[in-house]
Amino acid sequence: MIIPRLLLLSSCLVVIIVSSQNVSLKCLKDTMDFLSDLNAKEPQTYAILMYDALGKAGSGIVNGNMDRVGSYSECLSVIAPSGSFHGEYCKLHVEQEGVKFVIGICVPNSCSSQEVTSLARMDILEYSGTSLLAPLPNFMTQNDSFLAVADTVCSGGLFGLDAFAIVCLCISGVLILLPVIASVYTGVLCLMVTSSLEQLSLVTGKGKRGGNSEHDKLALKSSLSVVEEERTKQIKNRLDHLIKSFCLQENIPTVSSRNADNREYPSLDGIRVLSLLWIISGHTGQLAYVFNMDNSFEWKARVLEKPLYLYALSGPVYLGVDSFFLLSGFLSAISFLKLTENSETVTMTMVMKFVYKRIMRLQPLHLASICLSIALISLAHWGSFWELPKHQWDNCRRVWWANVLLITNYVSVAESCSGWAWYLSNDFQFHLTTPLVIFLYVKWRKAMHAAVTLLFLVQFLASTLLSYYLQLSINYPTGESRSRLNYWVEYYTKPYCRYGPFLVGMSLAILMSIKKQCPCIKNKVYAVVGWICSFLTMFLVITLAFVLDDSPNSYSIMAAFYQGLHRTLWAAAVGWVIVACQEGYGGLINSLLSWQTWGILSKISYACYLTHPIIIILYCGLQETLFHYLDINMFYMFIGHTVFTCTAGFALTVLVERPLQRLLSI
């Protein structure tokens, strides 16, 4: 036993000295101990467990089951008998004839990621003369090639607590503690007031039994006056205002009430919630496909290419977001028009007030969600799929300031903190154009019509030319990495490509304002024609996505035109639904979209949008095995993500959003 181990150690030392000199003696010794104990006539238990935790090729390779994850928890449970090391789980990123995949391997924790890469490249990790890193089977490759190790990432030390994480943990703790303290304070105060009232009622009762003397009446009046004065002082006190702003007893009823904050346009609630569910459904499949799926080829062939899966991720990418932009533009114009009701012009004070309100609406919950996500990431015990939380962790530490300035769609888009925050940046930038459009509407309507037309043309040309020049896919991009990156970075997140639906919303609000005394829909004939056009537009937007040729080798000019128009057309079709429902021509659709329960969910929709990717990231990152796609599995994942999202959204709304809105008197 000793002689073979010494010979193996000596030979490996020579190889390392000659080859790379990148492996420490401690790492080398522990690795050789493990390999020797594994290859012994009677392998030791810990070595068997480390080998058992190794990722091995499984079934379903032709369907996309390339990654060999292994057993994360089994590896971490290993402790060498000598106590000199324990198991550490590492992921080797390898490539064979252009096919990239991952192999999970269990190594001594004395080895760093770079050292594991060096050991793998020197091909000394063997069991019974066979490499632990088995190549792909022959039917997957054209030649008898070997694996090439690109790099290695080990689980140890990925999420160390630094100043940024500590600050996020402290802020998260304060956001949770303040409502608790405020609720306890309010409860105690209510008990004290109740007790005082009971004592006064006893005094009143005794006074009645004693003949209701004039002296008792004056005493009672004086007591009530003192209580009222003290109550007034407490309400005016700043500390009392702060505490009551965070009080759950007052915030929960405002959220859980079936009456929405603004039922002037009740159909908006249904559109907002259904669009949110559409986005959650798409992200459920998208994030599972990126990291956790063992039959990704089957998922792509079925979900991405069949219209039946439109509400998952098939067809045009995330039309629900364009519905959001439509609603945002509509409400933005309505809000600013109300500011100009008692004024003949648009003043800078109005603009500053409008911008301030929008910032205060977006940023408190947005920045709080970032802190909460970093806090959760730093506290969670991650599984084999740490890439998603690690991406959020690293990027937020590096470019958090872009989220503060609401420019994530321009700065580090591919590596942004909370990648879904690109929507907020676009939304805020779009809101900055609302005062200009309304100013032209108030002062010079012909100029407004020309400006709106010009903005539509600019958005259309920018989207069309970019799509044609970069040959952007119409559907969810799955081609080579550069093409996918161009889609998300150059087109999907850029305001000059996404402004159309917001502009439709603004135009719709202005039209309804003009037609306030005279309805837009004259009679039932107009209504029927409008509904037919709306449904036909939606049908064409969806159908053409499966018909037009967007392949790189034969990219069609019609595909580029489609990219430039389809989001704006979708918004226009949904805009008709709003008009028809508002003017009494909605029928069953109006009843569905105006369901009062949507009002409750609509109140927490912003918090749900911010939290649902975090919940999906938590779910994916805590897994230790690959996820197998089946329709029923995906449906259950969607239901689970939706329930947890609504729960977390409700909690964030009453703990953060409503308190800060009340505190800042928005």
Description:
The chain has 666 residues and is mainly alpha-helical. It has 3 domains: 2-154, no CATH class; 163-246; 267-663, no CATH class. The chain is 66% helix and 5% strand. It has helices spanning 2-19, 25-39, 45-52, 72-76, 113-121, 163-209, 214-236, 238-245, 248-256, 267-291, 296-303, 319-339, 348-379, 387-405, 422-431, 434-443, 445-470, 481-492, 495-514, 524-547, 557-582, 587-593, 596-603, 605-621, 631-663, and strands at 87-96, 99-108, 126-127, 130-131, 148-154. The protein has a 3-stranded antiparallel beta sheet. Strands 3-4 form a two-stranded antiparallel ribbon. A hairpin with a 2-residue loop joins strand 1 and strand 2. The protein starts with a helix and ends with a helix. The model has no long low-confidence stretch (mean pLDDT 86).
Q: Layout of helices and strands, plus pairs?
A:
Layout lengths: L1 H18 L5 H15 L5 H8 L19 H5 L10 E10 L2 E10 L4 H9 L4 E2 L2 E2 L16 E7 L8 H47 L4 H23 L1 H8 L2 H9 L10 H25 L4 H8 L15 H21 L8 H32 L7 H19 L16 H10 L2 H10 L1 H26 L10 H12 L2 H20 L9 H24 L9 H26 L4 H7 L2 H8 L1 H17 L9 H33 L3
Antiparallel strand pairs: 1-2, 1-5, 3-4
Helix pairs in contact: 1-2, 2-3, 6-7, 6-8, 6-13, 8-25, 9-25, 10-12, 10-22, 10-23, 10-24, 10-25, 12-15, 12-19, 12-21, 13-14, 13-24, 13-25, 15-19, 16-17, 17-18, 17-19, 17-21, 19-21, 20-21, 24-25
